[in-house]
Design brief:
254 residues; Arc Repressor Mutant, subunit A; 2 strands
Amino acid sequence: MERSAGALRVVDVDADAPEPGGTSDPGSPAASADPAGPTSESPHRVRIIDGTLACLARHGTVKTTVDDIARESRVSRATVYRAFPGGRDEILGAVVDTEMARLFSALGVRLGTAGDLREALVGGIVEASTRLRDHAALHFLVEHEPGMILGHLAFEDSDRLLATASGFTAPFLARWMPPHDAERVAEWAVRIVLSYAIAPSDLTDVCDPVQADRLVTTFMLPGIAALQTADAGPIDITPYGGNRPDPDRPVSSP
């Protein structure tokens, strides 16, 4: 079922959505992720959440009131408070949770239908980055309320966001690597998406499949291969000139 949220169109994944390996195994990552979000709630909640998104895309969080939300959602103020007794703060919290669930729904489809690790990484990065870029409410907040939105993304809620997104992604990547490696690679991919969302680059557009593929094949896949090499030791990233020894200088005996 398609829903509209400002400029963002999302597709909720139903019970027949593809899962990793193309199976319908209830124990598979996509089946256990439960990305349905608010679909089990009353229709009023979904309508109010989508109405709030439209308000945020025009006015941001500062100027959006419960009256604005009720008017945009075409429900009464009383109906809004029956659905969300906590008022505006509860609605905004539900919007965040719902949009994350919608993002994971779409991401689960891309990851679940990928035929190999490269396709999974490229597809996941492009899907997530494009949805963040084209999200009308998020775009308004980044432009007009950067302190609030970037503070949450980069500092206050970054650990929780990383853990949630990495935890969702890792089981899909575990089709091609041990689970502990999948967790590390998933976090790496999430950090890439967030970094380019917060500070877009003129040199690399991760929303472009060709450029995202170049990033994955040039940097991520070689790094993953090194990670999976049985005899690979820890990589010393201490810069020269610091405490890192010169590899060409013989080590003197104590």
